[in-house]
Amino acid sequence: MANVLKNIKGDKVIWTVVFLLTIISFLAVYSSTGTLAWKYKGGNTEYYMLKHAIILFLGLLLMYFAHLIKYTYYSRIFQIALYIAVPLLLITLIFGLNLNEAKRVLQLPFNLTFQTSDLAKITLIIYLARILTKKQDQIKDFKEAFIPLMIPVLIVCGLIFPANFSTAALLFTTSMVLIFIGRVKLTYFFGMIAIGLVALIIALSILYYMPVEKQGRLATWKSRIESFIDGGESSDNYQVEQAKIAIASGYPFGKGPGNSTQRNFLPHPYSDFIFAIIVEEYGLAGGFVIVLLYLILFYRAVRIVTKIPGTFGSFLTIGVSFSLVFQAMINMGVAVNILPVTGQPLPLVSMGGTSIWFTSLAIGIILSVSKDLENNTVALETVNNDEDE
Questions:
Q1: In whole angstroms, what is the distance from residue 331 CA to residue 349 CA?
Q2: CA-CA distance, 346 to 272, in Å (whole number)?
Q3: According to DSSP H, which parts of the chain are helical?
């Protein structure tokens, strides 16, 4: 154990944020899975506690090993991973497990599932960081830089879109932010956004007028958006109403750990609406701490970006950190009813398998960049001290 702690490198503030989010996740998931345990495990709440503890431990282990690898190696690793992720997305779209009228996951042996979009998200972001780095000298050229950047974005987001609109939108937004930071010509940038919006409107318009029985997942999107706009009765509004009750009953300092009542009424209190349960049990103070932790994570990532000398490390860190924090803000925005229901988990807090593991991998990569920055700083200080002597 001492050797492991000795080998932990990178930004200590980010490690602290991860540690705190992990503790919050364990407590919140244990508290919010009571109804689930009574429904499926005869009241055995320890089952979900142990399962989540193992997932968190494996996530931390993955983060630890990911941060030991020099971040430049991820450039080639995820170039190869893109050629794996795209076929997996296509296979999932055709043969995936049908959950809530959407094929998002692949069924694996031993009753395990794998959400391929989680792999695709981090793969695309790192691939874009690689291409932006390699194409900086031709970054204003449409054929040499813009096309190689946009083709994988359109393919990956297009394959995710039919089953998971919110994830596709989140990934497309993150990609556009990264491409904008990469100094792509603004004419191309805004042109692609316009084309994307027009294509989305056309696709939704065609699907909107299809017979209801053929709309599939579109019917769910329509219901969520319409419910958010008009506030009418629906299953999605029921979720939001229960979340608002949980938040309102939290008061400044909450009901205390394990004392949530809305977990018995709120669908998915351990994943999509876990923020509402946290506020109910720990109050507005607890909610503020969660928001602050994600903002600290993003701030520390930005500090790494401003100091790291390599272009790839900068693009990699800002892309991955923006994706994580943006997703967190979307999840919390849904819980407080400023956004329609999306189904996005709260990174590193919501219960889940692949979501937590790929979030851990993403943070491990950020820590790898910060570790390299620390090593360069120490080497530079050593050189300066030698010169002074």
A1: 11
A2: 7
A3: 2-7, 12-32, 34-40, 45-68, 73-95, 116-134, 147-160, 165-181, 186-208, 212-215, 217-230, 235-248, 274-307, 311-335, 354-388
Per-residue confidence band for 42, with pLDDT thresholds at 50, 70 and 90: confident
Q: Kindly tell me the burial class for residue 336, based on how many C-beta atoms sit within 10 Å of its own C-beta (0-12, 13-18, 19 or more).
A: middle
> Taking 60 as the threshold, does the pLDDT of residue 386 lie above it?
no
Contacts of 19 (CB under 8 A, 6+ apart): none
pLDDT band for 352, please (50, 70, 90 cuts).
Answer: confident
Return the residue matching tokens 């429904």: 39
What is the distance between the alpha carbons of residues 270 and 1, in angstroms, rounded to a whole number?
31
Residues 6+ apart with CB under 8 A from 387: none
pLDDT tens track for 76-88: 999 999 999 999 9
**Residue 10 buriedness (CB in 10 A; 0-12 / 13-18 / 19+):** buried
| CA angle centred on 57, ends 56 and 58, rounded to 5° | 90
